Amino acid sequence: MSIAGSLRVVEAGARVYRRTWRGSVISTFLNPMLYLLAMGILAGQLVDDGPGAANLQLPYLTWLAPGLLAATTMQAGAVDASYPVMAAVKWRKTYQATLSTPIGVPELVLGHLGWVTLRITFVAVAFAAVMALFGATTVLEGLAAVPPGVLTGVAFAAVITAYTARLKSETGLASLFRFGIIPLFLFSGTFFPIEQLPDAVEPIAYVTPLWHGVELCRGLALGADYTFHPLVSAGYLAAWTVVGGYFAVRFLSRRLIS
Amino acid sequence: MSNLVEARNLTKHFESLVAVDAIDFDVHEGEAFGFLGPNGAGKSSTMKMIGAVSPLTAGTLQVLGMDPARDGPKIRARLGVVPQEDNLDQELSVYENLLIYGRYFGLPKGVIDARAAELLAFAQLEDRRQSLVEPLSGGMKRRLVIARALINQPDLLLLDEPTTGLDPQARHLLWDRLYRLKQQGVTLIITTHYMDEAEQLCDRLVIMDKGKIAAEGAPRDLIDRYATREVLELRFPVGAQAVQAQQLGEIAKEIEVLPDRVLLYTDDADLAHARVLEAGFAPESTVSRRSTLEDVFLRLTGRTLID
Fold it and tell me: What pLDDT does residue A107 have?
């Protein structure tokens, strides 16, 4: 395993992105802005004027924004680790090309996640800028949410890379988004506190990595109270990253070095 | 002459399937070495093991004097690999494909730029440098894959079915490029199920069938050893072939009955043809020709190369 090899994979990711970034602008920037506008500002006025305002103790837009940053980085991580990995393994077989050079599977996975980290950082910083622009938070508050946001995105990217490495067809990716990412996006405390969920379902939210990401982002940006110690949440996300990375190496090796 | 590849008892299993069944072979420096056989003969599995991207099930393999299990990255640093399916990055330009691939070998950009210029000239893609890969023709993509495989100036170039799916013109252009590489002293290993490709390009080859090596030698030697000098092909009306073939026994040294034609192995096809007509047979069409590697394969295995 060589770090130099991984850095070359990061570099390749950046070179490809220079060609393809246009296609991802809408999903990574425009959609979150629309959510912030529709939910944060427009629906948020109803919340702020209604009886629920006392529960949040903050304008809804402000409360929503850091959580939405975590949900956005989750989606960016999921996108980068799903269809592009499927294409590299199955459709275009570019991973096979990479592996016929001195680069091995561990370097490939580390480099892939390294590049995804850079891209998600870019997404998170842009989102923090939009938050400030909309008056949801200050610039510094927004930037404080960037590191946990990136960690959230990378945790998802690692696990989903491992998941995609085993898939025979892309229907598994559609299911992933339909039954995994979208429900998480809606029910992990991004749009409403999970105390709103039925008591029986509430503990499930504690297991989801996105909820921990949302907690950390909100805590760091707004000084909100944590349910668990922040290091527990950060450790939980880091564990997902490491386990995901480990299985990504295993599954890709099984598939490509057979 | 030193060996760049030495395989002894080389074996590859995929679960219960035996893809490569205890084969031995050596590839000498500077030669073009071929694996000829039908699909599923074990050629690609052998190539992947040589390319250090597939662990052996049993046996030993030395590539460039190293063990692929231990020195995979070092071996791959000195190989050029042209896979069966083009795995170019379709979203990138011709040049960017060379750049990214060259960077995987740790080459500085300046070195890659200089080599890319030479390689694109060699691959006759100079005017396509900035084009995206996706709209290129099959032959152009293939030549780009070969150019990409040469970016690290490999000691050994592995070509897995290099011309499958190309039209005749594109194939001949590619053969010409590979022939030039051979002239420059690059050691080539080629798998193919085209006997003409093997005859054109390979100094030495092994014929593979069902994971085993059926024969080994120079193309001409194999033909001399396993086939007669010439072949007469006869085509009879549908249904009449089997009956007619039984009665042809006297005329040729050996007869092979295929679904669509009968092959007569003989030293003089024209003479045999005359005797066929004399004996009162009336084939619908006849072809007399020199024996090829296809005939060698047929006689060794009882099957054709492309079925």
Answer: 97
pLDDT for the residue B307:
57
Q: What is the pLDDT of residues B67-118, one digit of tens each?
A: 999 999 999 999 999 999 999 999 899 999 999 999 999 999 999 999 999 9
Q: How far from each other are the two terminal CA atoms of chain A, in whole angstroms?
A: 19
The answer, for A101 touching chain B at a CB cutoff of 8 Å, is yes
Q: Which residue in B90, B91, B105 is closest to A101 by CB distance?
A: B105
Contact present, A86 and A167 (Cβ < 8 Å) = yes
Residues in chain A with CB shorter than 8 Å from the CB of B96 are 15, 19
Q: Which amino acid is at B214?
A: A
- pTM attached to this predicted model: 0.91
B55 to A101: CB separation less than 8 angstroms, yes or no: no
Pairing label, strands B32-36, B187-192: parallel
Place of tokens 């052996």: B56
| DSSP summary character for residue B212 | E
**Chain A positions in Cβ-Cβ contact with residue B74 (cut-off 8 Å):** 102
User: Which ipTM was obtained for this model?
Assistant: 0.91
- In this prediction, residue B3 has a pLDDT band, given cuts at 50, 70 and 90, of very high
Which of A21, A91, A100 should one mutate to test binding to chain B, selecting the residue with the greatest count of B CBs within 10 A?
A: A100
Question: B189-217, pLDDT tens digit by residue?
Answer: 999 988 889 988 999 999 999 999 999 99
Give the separation between CA B37 and CA B216, rounded to whole angstroms: 12
| Chain A nearest C-alpha distance from B44 (Å) | 12
Task: Pick the residue from chain B with its C-alpha nearest to A7.
Answer: B104
